[in-house]
Amino acid sequence: MSAQRLAMSDSSLLIARITALVGFVAVSSAGSCPPLGPVLPAPQSPSSSTHLRQSIAKLTSLLDTTLAARYNTSGIAIAVQSIHEDAPLFSYFRTPRGKASGYGTTRDIDMDTVFRVGSVSKLVTALAAMQQSRGHGLPGKIDLDASVLEYIPELANSTAAGVVKTRWQDVTVRALASHLSGLADDKFGLPPITNGTGPPCAAIPGASRLCTKADLVRDLNRRPPVYRPYAATPSYSNTGFALLGMVIEAAAGRPFKEVVQKHIFAPAGMNGSSFDGPVQSFDTVGFVPPMEPTWNATLGVYEPAFSAGGMFSSTRDLVQLGRSILSHRLLPESITRSWMHPLAHTSSPGQSVGAPWEILRTDNLTAARHGRVIDVYTKTGDLGLYHAHLALLPDYGLVASVIVAGAEVSADPLARTKLLSQTLRGLIPAVERAGRDEAREKYVGRYVDATTNSTLSVTMDGDDSDAGSGLFLAGFSARGFDVLDNIHKYNPTAGAGSTASTSSSPSPKVIARLYPTDVTSQSGSRCGNGTSTGTAWRAIVDSTTAAQREEQDTQLFYMDGSCEAWFGVDGPAYNYLTLTEFVFLTDEDGGVTGVRNLAFNVTMGKVKA
Fold first, then answer.
1. Which pTM does this prediction carry?
2. Which residues form the Beta-lactamase-related domain (predicted)?
């Protein structure tokens, strides 16, 4: 069938949306607007990049200069690693000059030095709950959308006169994990209470009596909720995670620490991590900064039952935790993907909340002058003089860990996050460059099928600050017909009985960029020998100018209003097949052998340079 006949076929075969005609508006006033997520495959061997090695040297020098003048008694451990490599691509450690607290190790800080990591523990708790959940092929006993009363029914029996009682039937397990339960936090610092009416216990290191599970369940209703469940804003709650730990214990029928050891620490290779006090080797691997009062403190129900902040861990272990999550080794891939999404937003456009992800949104990490939006999935933790920040960057297949400890770093509540920011800003542009170099080598080229007179030309922008994202679709002809320059003619509203515009007006200039999806398949291919793996990419096409986009943004009340790439990921379709889907075929060695467009039924082999 000729391309002209394809364009004029029965309109009943054309399944399209008006908004998907030319990828809708795919570019914002600030520059290119790709879909959220990776715009190219994550680099498989970033550490081999010359550009990255240069960036590492600059970052190391910068940290040496800035930290030497700032910290004398604080310890610092930073590491960044790709899920595709066995060793960190960057690590930085700083041992205080004196390093004499009288406890723990006297060795220099390294990947295996053990710290307390505070509320990073909540990530492990939420992960354990996901593992014990039921549905999606999981055999667990936890229904994440069930009321907490299903697992802790005694909560309904606790009462308190004169206090607004929590509606426990509305508090779900998922709400506990995402700070949407509305339950109060466990902050302290209140004035004294007379006549013995106050709490008989506390979750403060060094308290005269630490709270037990029975204390928490009995007295929880004596404190009113902050909000009703699923309010407009999340409200950080250690209490919610204490209850989540109890839910896990009730469902598993064993102590929380045993569940975590068996299902998370052991399979992830986290040999230096513990919820049951410091590991036995703490004297030789544990770091205790001077005047640190919490290094061996217990938090009562807030620690062994779930740990709002009691986990001991190392840089290596936190990196391994992140790598295991991104590699789907601890949960089925579908569950991991559903878990790594926001469940609530905050009053900051740059911060959203998951279960219990602290999702940081940025547009200033890449080298491009008009940076693209990247979501970084993180969890922070603070306990005494210990502070940690674990970050996962799915777009790049990277995990970053920052742990700091000491009185000096504790004077700045954001010290660990500032170090994380400095590290990511120093490395991500080079990591992205490494990914671009790999993609250029693998995908860029000319693809031809002489039998059908079909060609595809794929290029990439340069590496300057104005470079666009993804692959650039320079041309596409199917069966001798120039599809790309006529893409606007595949218009479902052009007229009854016709799938193509008959207008004599000139075709608008279009820019098409290809972005990877996560859809793969295996099939035989005449582009190479044996079985090929096919990876689907989608082209988003735009024909607006920068001036038009800027004008559009001035007329809209919301940020980056002209950036609507998600409307155009699925373009016009023919016979159930999207015209703008291209499946790159790779051989057993990972080399690209060709590309297939199913809608036009053409398979084009890559022309060797």
1. 0.89
2. 104-409
